[in-house]
């Protein structure tokens, strides 16, 4: 996993609620056996015509909006557990998704991919959508060590929550596997205590 | 302190709590399939790690498999390579695989329970969000992403935090024609797609207790559709009778010990829940969805809501535009082109029986294509033994071979763009059943009646 410290970037707005993982990456693109290459099919059915031509009205095809931050409506990432959704966003260049609400599995998958799910209040989210609509070139700064989202044009900074362990992992590029493997003795002891289940 | 069912099972699986709230959480059973496991096996090998507990893993091929001619090689090269990769990985790592052609092959959430692999008190995970199905047995079961699949493979544990507890009680008697599917569609319509995010739901109450195991699985299956991490139901005599004698269930003396333990698994009087909701079973009508998320459901004989100009309006209108419906209109009389009976929500023997019982001696409408995809080889076998295949064939329904099929349309079973499909599956997302497909979720009974009538009708007139 890549390290994440701070990011200053433009924003791509997607003001739709309940964006499910079938929209982020439709099932027919899940046939790969590797983690790479999902970015080209990110939001495939919203982004391309059936013949593969880009749909001009979809935000990813609009050159006015550029950046590594996706600003998304409430309850982002609901539906399937496919981590491919987080991989697709990451592969397409996104490092942060801002929403007022994330589905549980998506949040976990994003963190395990190195993609930061940054939760803000509904009011802040709506404010950001308005700001980006007015000034598409607006830049935001995400600072992970201090857990702040700064909005320079507003001269404002907002704190955001993140589990302390997960924060360490992102900052250092660690993942859970190393930690879990290091717990092998504790796990074996546990197994001996409740062996009867099997 | 009085403990909830959820806490009893959760506490029994904490290997270690680490400061900050995360816990090393032990997993008893890990189910895998071809779509979300290949990257995990690769990761394991890249890190030079062994597979921690191969005996606690069970594999099947379901998402990608064709539902016709399963004895022939899979035509789609990408699907074939995914299924082949699973076969290779299982052979290499010593994992039991119920692949194509195996007598136990089927949808992962159908075979676990029917083989007795799923048992009360267990923790069960799978790289699939509908793992919540297994909660019907009084297990903590939930879907995980591929990185977590790797974690379980490497350590048999996950590093997670404890969700909050919600109890949903449904008391009273169900009206005729109202099934488990209607209960859960009703609950999701009340809570919305994010209404239970962060919670693990226990379903309780007399209406839940009176459900068969198949019905309970249907309810737990769709817990994720309101954002819940999972759902579970306390095990009881219905659960034990279902499990007894199943191939992987405990036998003999071990059975007795198991039942004695399972009987301790219930929420004690006064147990704490962060959220408690109660519904009246008699208020639930046969349901159908009209939009593009499972929370957009209504009673069949009511109308699509008219939404004002609040925050959700844009998403609501987008959804209705996709479906070709208008705010405030009724769905009754709408012509339907496809009926799909299948998926881990409703593809068990009881579902097939309900459909067969209704369509016996009738015939589907000419313009409707009706396919039934059993959840497993065992369901298929039993359907044939009971003669359901004949009944269905005479009614013009096509009984296919087991798999996920048109639930997510990864194989050839796709609904064409613009067509309407009444489906017993769990998701009506845009394009879920194929690009442009329009899905209306409903129970097997509603699906069967719709297939015969060729349009959406108020089924209450048909079941009385
Ligand atoms: S039937 Fe549908 S929901 Fe169930 S496991 Fe298969 S794809 Fe997922």
Automatic annotation (TrEMBL), chain A:
What metabolic or biological pathway is this protein involved in? Answer: Amino-acid biosynthesis; L-leucine biosynthesis; L-leucine from 3-methyl-2-oxobutanoate: step 2/4
Q: What is its EC number?
A: 4.2.1.33
- Please list the reactions this protein catalyses: (2R,3S)-3-isopropylmalate = (2S)-2-isopropylmalate
Q: List the GO biological process terms.
A: L-leucine biosynthetic process
Which EC class, in a word?
Answer: lyase
Query: Entry's Gene3D superfamilies?
Result: Aconitase, domain 4
Origin: domain of life: Bacteria
Quick check: keyword Transcription in the entry? no
A single Pfam family, by name?
Answer: Aconitase_C
Q: Which UniProt keywords apply?
A: Amino-acid biosynthesis, Branched-chain amino acid biosynthesis, Leucine biosynthesis, Lyase
GO cellular component terms, semicolon-separated: 3-isopropylmalate dehydratase complex
Q: Give any GO molecular function from the UniProt entry.
A: 3-isopropylmalate dehydratase activity
Q: Where is the Aconitase A/isopropylmalate dehydratase small subunit swivel domain?
A: 1-122
What role does this protein play? Catalyzes the isomerization between 2-isopropylmalate and 3-isopropylmalate, via the formation of 2-isopropylmaleate.
Concerning its family, UniProt says: Belongs to the LeuD family. LeuD type 1 subfamily.
The cross-references to NCBIfam families, in alphabetical order and at most eight, read: leuD, PRK01641.1
How does this protein assemble?
Heterodimer of LeuC and LeuD.
HAMAP family in UniProt: LeuD_type1
Q: What is this protein called?
A: 3-isopropylmalate dehydratase small subunit
Write down the species: Hymenobacter metallicola
From TrEMBL, chain B:
**Could you say which residues bind [4Fe-4S] cluster here?**
344, 404, 407
The protein's matches in InterPro entries, at most eight in alphabetical order, are given as: 3-IsopropMal_deHydase_lsu (IPR004430), Acnase/IPM_dHydase_lsu_aba_1/3 (IPR015931), Acoase/IPM_deHydtase_lsu_aba (IPR001030), Aconitase_4Fe-4S_BS (IPR018136), Aconitase_4Fe-4S_dom (IPR036008), IPM_dehydratase_rel_enz (IPR050067), IPMI_cat (IPR033941)
Enzyme Commission designation: 4.2.1.33
Q: Which UniProt keywords apply?
A: 4Fe-4S, Amino-acid biosynthesis, Branched-chain amino acid biosynthesis, Iron, Iron-sulfur, Leucine biosynthesis, Lyase, Metal-binding
Report whether Iron shows up as a keyword of the record: yes
Q: One GO molecular-function annotation for this sequence?
A: 3-isopropylmalate dehydratase activity
The pathway is: Amino-acid biosynthesis; L-leucine biosynthesis; L-leucine from 3-methyl-2-oxobutanoate: step 2/4
List the Pfam families hit by this protein, alphabetically: Aconitase
A GO biological process held by the record: L-leucine biosynthetic process
Q: Would you indicate the residue range of the signal peptide? A: none
Q: Record's SUPFAM superfamilies? A: Aconitase iron-sulfur domain (SSF53732)
Tell me which cofactor or cofactors this protein depends on: [4Fe-4S] cluster
Cofactor notes: Binds 1 [4Fe-4S] cluster per subunit.
Pinpoint the Aconitase/3-isopropylmalate dehydratase large subunit alpha/beta/alpha domain residues: 7-454
Top enzyme category: lyase
Q: Hey, which family's this protein in?
A: Belongs to the aconitase/IPM isomerase family. LeuC type 1 subfamily.
Job of this protein: Catalyzes the isomerization between 2-isopropylmalate and 3-isopropylmalate, via the formation of 2-isopropylmaleate.
Write down the NCBIfam families for this protein, in alphabetical order. leuC, PRK05478.1, PRK12466.1
Do you know which HAMAP family this protein is assigned to? LeuC_type1
Quaternary organization: Heterodimer of LeuC and LeuD.
Q: What is this protein called?
A: 3-isopropylmalate dehydratase large subunit
Q: What is the lineage of its organism?
A: Bacteria, Pseudomonadati, Bacteroidota, Cytophagia, Cytophagales
């Amino acid at each position: 996993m890549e390290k994440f410290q701070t990011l200053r970037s433009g924003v791509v707005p997607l003001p739709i609620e309940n964006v499910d993982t079938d929209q982020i990456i439709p099932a027919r693109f899940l046939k790969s056996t590797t983690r790479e290459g999902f970015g080209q099919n990110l939001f495939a059915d919203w982004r391309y015509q059936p013949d593969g031509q880009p749909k001009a009205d979809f935000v990813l095809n609009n050159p006015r909006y550029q950046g590594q931050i996706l600003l998304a409506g409430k309850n982002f990432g609901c539906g399937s557990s496919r981590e491919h959704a987080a991989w697709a966003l990451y592969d397409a260049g996104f490092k942060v998704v801002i929403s007022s609400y994330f589905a549980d599995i998506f949040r976990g998958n994003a963190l395990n991919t190195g993609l930061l799910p940054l939760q803000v209040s509904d009011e802040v989210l709506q404010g950001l959508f308005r700001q980006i609509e007015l000034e598409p070139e607006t830049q935001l700064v995400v600072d992970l060590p201090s857990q702040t989202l700064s909005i320079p044009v507003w001269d404002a900074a907002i704190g955001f929550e993140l589990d302390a362990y997960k924060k360490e992992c992102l900052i250092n590029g660690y993942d859970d596997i190393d930690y879990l493997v290091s717990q092998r003795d504790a796990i074996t002891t546990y197994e001996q205590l409740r062996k009867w289940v099997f | 302190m009085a403990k909830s069912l959820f806490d009893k099972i959760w506490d029994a699986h904490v290997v270690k709590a680490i400061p900050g709230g995360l816990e090393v959480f032990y997993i008893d059973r890990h189910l895998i399939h071809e779509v979300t496991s290949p990257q995990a096996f690769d990761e394991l090998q890249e890190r030079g790690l062994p597979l921690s507990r191969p005996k606690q893993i069970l594999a099947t091929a379901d998402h990608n498999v064709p539902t016709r001619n399963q004895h022939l090689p899979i035509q789609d090269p990408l699907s074939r390579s995914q299924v082949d990769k699973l076969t290779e990985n299982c052979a290499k790592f010593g994992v039991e695989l119920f692949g194509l052609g195996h007598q136990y092959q089927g949808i992962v959430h159908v075979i676990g329970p029917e083989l007795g692999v799923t048992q009360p008190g267990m923790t069960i995970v799978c790289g699939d969000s509908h793992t919540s199905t297994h909660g019907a047995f009084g297990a903590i079961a939930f879907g995980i992403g591929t990185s977590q699949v790797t974690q379980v493979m490497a350590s048999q544990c996950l590093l997670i935090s404890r969700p909050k507890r919600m109890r949903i009680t449904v008391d009273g008697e169900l009206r005729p024609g109202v099934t488990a599917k209607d209960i859960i569609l009703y609950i999701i319509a009340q809570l919305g797609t994010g209404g239970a995010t962060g919670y693990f739901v226990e379903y309780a109450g007399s209406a839940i207790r009176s459900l068969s195991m198949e019905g309970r699985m249907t309810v737990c299956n769709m817990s994720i559709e309101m954002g819940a991490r999972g759902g579970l139901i306390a095990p009881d005599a219905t659960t034990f009778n279902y499990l007894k004698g199943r191939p992987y269930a405990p036998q003999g003396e071990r059975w007795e010990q198991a039942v004695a333990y399972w009987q301790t698994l219930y929420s004690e009087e006064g147990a704490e829940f962060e959220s408690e909701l109660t519904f009246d079973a008699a208020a639930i009508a046969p349901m159908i969805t009209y939009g593009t998320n499972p929370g957009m459901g209504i009673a069949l004989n009511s109308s699509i809501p008219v939404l004002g100009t609040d925050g959700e309006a844009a998403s609501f209108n987008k959804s209705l535009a996709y479906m070709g419906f208008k705010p405030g209109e009724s769905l009754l009389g709408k012509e339907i082109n496809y009926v799909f009976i299948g998926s881990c929500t409703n593809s068990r023997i009881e579902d097939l029986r309900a459909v067969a019982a209704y369509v016996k001696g009738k015939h589907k409408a000419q313009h409707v294509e009706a396919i039934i995809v059993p959840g497993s080889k065992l369901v298929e076998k039993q359907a044939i033994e009971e003669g359901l295949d004949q009944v269905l064939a005479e009614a013009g329904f096509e009984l296919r071979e087991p798999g996920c099929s048109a639930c997510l349309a990864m194989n050839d079973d796709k609904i064409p763009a613009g067509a309407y499909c009444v489906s017993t599956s769990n998701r009506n997302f845009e394009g879920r059943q194929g690009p442009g497909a329009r899905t209306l979720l409903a129970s097997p009974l509603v699906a069967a009646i719709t297939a015969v009538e060729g349009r959406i009708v108020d089924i209450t007139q048909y079941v009385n």
